[in-house]
């Protein structure tokens, strides 16, 4: 929460041990495409306003997703993979995705695991879905090299200047230039950080290229000075702050001590929401509250789509919430936060992919899942329900939407 409402807008631009489950309560409302009722709120009181947020996890582009699609369809339009969830983004003020793997295009060699690089046309697909915030800082940000990352950012800047990308920068001056989205009169500050770079290092002449918030991966020492360097000017330039954190331990359903410590730090800094990624599986969510601050933390939204091969990595999450802001008190209130499970379906021959909400996923689809047919793992509706419930539990004030 900021005490300064000055606007500065910058278009910055594996296997899990616990693949188990229970069932969470479903409460009507969340998990449906958001509707914009902010105009009514503003008319009722011109000193308050609101915005809606929808966010999803890792867009993890194994090469089978884009290579087979082009072979079978003769194009690079990937929108069909996401068509069942696209309306949720199009009806939200802020629509977020963890970009996860770079899309620098053919010039840098398309590739999958372990060093990823997807086609530029994937950016076109995501933009066409209505997504307007990409978190581009991840452990894979440097997989296509510094030039590849710069090419990706240049493509977004040229073709989609209205899309915000955060955590990576085209030049040194951009790193401390706050990314602020003006939404219904509320200045929403956006930032992203990653714990590391998949074994790569930043070029000596470009230390500003990616926000890496861990000084030493072996010790887990956090670079709070860097985080302050990014967040302090962001707070000064915005009313509300949302931060994307690429953190945690892969395939672990519980947040690490470091995740908890950094979440507490972000709460103390006045951040309203934290969107976590990297583990490739879901982790719990919680609402941190103190006398004058709320911070909604989604520790990990898991995979949004991927070519991974375990039942737990097929399950992701969609975060949705509304933030009400009072311009007189400078207080932000989080309204109706929810977590809605998503499921990725992969054909047994690895040639077709789609992602959908759990409530739309059928046992007929589960029976034809790659992880069911080839891996011999349970990916039924019952499995997903039980798994989500065990991991997410029944968090106070956060709705888990299963039906």
TrEMBL record:
Keywords: Signal. Residues 1-28 form the signal peptide. Residues 52-308 form the Capsule synthesis protein CapA domain. PROSITE patterns: PROKAR_LIPOPROTEIN. InterPro entries: Capsule_synth_CapA, CW_Biosynth-Accessory, Metallo-depent_PP-like. It comes from the Bacteria. SUPFAM superfamilies: Metallo-dependent phosphatases. Belongs to the CapA family. This is Capsule synthesis protein CapA domain-containing protein. It comes from Faecalibaculum rodentium.
